[in-house]
């Protein structure tokens, strides 16, 4: 795998809509394989977490979070992305680690195509069927750049904050040692229960949905 390097690091105070606040060290990179402007947010005492991991202790907590404009920014109830982002920021800040904000909207198909997929979902298709009907893959996300970012940060061994087994599989193939996969909470609403149930049944996300039983 090609080596990436940290190109810039700046301190950014963060405040979420519910009032939760923390401070992130936001890092940009040179040499990412896909040429996109992905970010790493160092949260909590991430330097100490790296040192502990290098000494054989607990690995830093890491969440690769794919960009979701509708959920992260506008609070869309059709997915659980916004609440997962908010949850990840606090949990990582508490334990020390990294939030990787990856520019792969709509499971990699882009914003306009994602909204086209929403229209097909309104007509009865599920989230994966809609992508395929548009001539796209069910999930086109690639975590090679995420692995490059982690290596550049010195985080070749991590605890992965995710319900998605594909993230663990892809990162492991890129050489990242996933010491543990830590599930996120279940952020369910009337508008996203079918979406979450499909993720659980179709791609083995670790999501327990009482309403989906």
Automatic annotation (TrEMBL):
Binds 1 zinc ion per subunit. The active site is at 139 (proton acceptor), 141 (nucleophile). Keywords: GTP-binding, Hydrolase, Metal-binding, Nucleotide-binding, Riboflavin biosynthesis, Zinc. Residues 22-183 form the GTP cyclohydrolase II domain. Its cofactor is Zn(2+). The keyword Zinc-finger does not apply. It catalyses: GTP + 4 H2O = 2,5-diamino-6-hydroxy-4-(5-phosphoribosylamino)-pyrimidine + formate + 2 phosphate + 3 H(+). The keyword GTP-binding applies. Its EC number is 3.5.4.25. It comes from the Bacteria. It is an enzyme of class 3 (hydrolase). Pathway: Cofactor biosynthesis; riboflavin biosynthesis; 5-amino-6-(D-ribitylamino)uracil from GTP: step 1/4. GTP binds at residues 63-67, 84, 105-107, 127, 162, 167. Zn(2+) binds at residues 68, 79, 81. Catalyzes the conversion of GTP to 2,5-diamino-6-ribosylamino-4(3H)-pyrimidinone 5'-phosphate (DARP), formate and pyrophosphate. Belongs to the GTP cyclohydrolase II family. This is GTP cyclohydrolase-2. It comes from Paractinoplanes bogorensis. The lineage of its organism: Bacteria, Bacillati, Actinomycetota, Actinomycetes, Micromonosporales. The gene is ribA.
């Amino acid at each position: 795998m090609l080596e990436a390097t940290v190109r810039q690091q700046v301190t950014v105070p963060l405040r979420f809509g519910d009032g939760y606040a923390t401070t992130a060290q936001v890092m940009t990179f040179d040499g990412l394989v896909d040429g996109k402007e992905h970010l790493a947010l160092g949260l909590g005492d991430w330097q100490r977490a790296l040192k502990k991991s290098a000494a054989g202790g607990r690995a830093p907590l890491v969440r690769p979070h794919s960009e979701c404009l509708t959920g992260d920014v506008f609070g869309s109830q059709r997915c659980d992305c916004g609440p997962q982002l908010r949850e990840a920021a606090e949990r990582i800040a508490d334990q020390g680690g990294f939030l990787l904000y990856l520019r792969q909207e709509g499971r990699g198909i882009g914003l306009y195509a994602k909204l086209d997929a929403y229209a097909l979902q309104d007509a009865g298709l599920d989230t994966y069927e809609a992508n395929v009907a548009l001539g796209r893959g069910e999930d086109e996300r690639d975590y090679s750049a995420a692995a490059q970012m982690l290596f550049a940060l010195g985080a070749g061994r991590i605890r992965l904050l995710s319900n998605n087994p594909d993230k663990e599989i892809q990162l492991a193939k890129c050489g990242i040692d996933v010491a543990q996969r830590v599930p996120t909470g279940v952020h369910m609403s009337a508008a996203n229960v079918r979406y979450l149930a499909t993720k659980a049944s179709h791609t083995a996300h670790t999501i327990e949905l009482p309403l989906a039983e």
